[in-house]
Amino acid sequence: MARTVDPARHQARRLQIIDAALTRFAQDGYDRATTTSICRTAGIGSGTFFHYFPTKRAVLLAVLDLGTAETAQWFEAQAGRADALQVVTDFAAHHADDCTDPRVAGFVQAVGAVMTEHDVAAALARDEDVLHLGLLPWVRAAAEAGEARRDRAPEQLTAWVTVLLNGYLDRLAGQRAFDARAEKDMLLDTVRRLLRP
């Protein structure tokens, strides 16, 4: 008789492994991180790891996909809001707050080492699409309400907001002195100035 799987427990264990992998990739880089070190950080055996993920690459992709899913969920949770421009700046603040996780810089560097690999590039492209599609309706609504500039197409403005968010992340990964918490206000100010009518 097949063993019954508790979905909540299964998901919790999967997230535990993903979190441990994020830590190892951030601290060791992609190449030096091993499934053994991920298992040690997660407090599990290798059999458990391979039950959830067939390879180290698979768990890296799971970390990326989880971030993409969280972005989609964040935008879904904003449905019904009438303050479109504030939604955009709230997302920028959310992004900046996520960047205060001390593992983010190292993880971005780890992903950078394999970002040209087809499956990683595809995961990053999905993430970019979800971000763009999440922001675009709010930028468009802000322009229609007169809260945001109309001299540029909403698609172009959304692309530039994305450039700012990605640049913030890249700066964090590339400059040890860059403090995500201290620079948050500057990011928000820059987004507002970009969109200001």
Q: What is CATH's topology name? A: Tetracycline Repressor, domain 2
Number of domains: 1
Give the mean pLDDT: 96
Amount of helix: over 70%
The rounded Rg comes to 19 Å
The assigned CATH architecture is Orthogonal Bundle
Task: Note the gap between the termini.
Answer: 66 Å
Shape: globular
Number of strands: 0
Domain HTH tetR-type: 11-71
Keywords: DNA-binding, Transcription, Transcription regulation
DNA-binding region: 34-53
Protein name: AcrR family transcriptional regulator
SSE topology:
Blueprint: H1 7-32, H2 35-42, H3 46-52, H4 56-76, H5 84-98, H6 104-112, H7 118-144, H8 154-174, H9 180-195
Helix pairs in contact: 1-2, 1-4, 1-6, 4-7, 5-7, 5-9, 6-8, 7-8, 8-9
Structure commentary:
- The protein is mainly alpha-helical.
- The relative contact order is 0.12.
- The chain contains nine helices and no strands.
Write a compact overview of the structure shown.
The protein is mostly helical.
Key traits:
single chain; 197 residues; mainly alpha; Tetracycline Repressor, domain 2; 9 helices; globular; transcription; HTH-type_TetR-like_transc_reg; transcription regulation; HTH_TetR
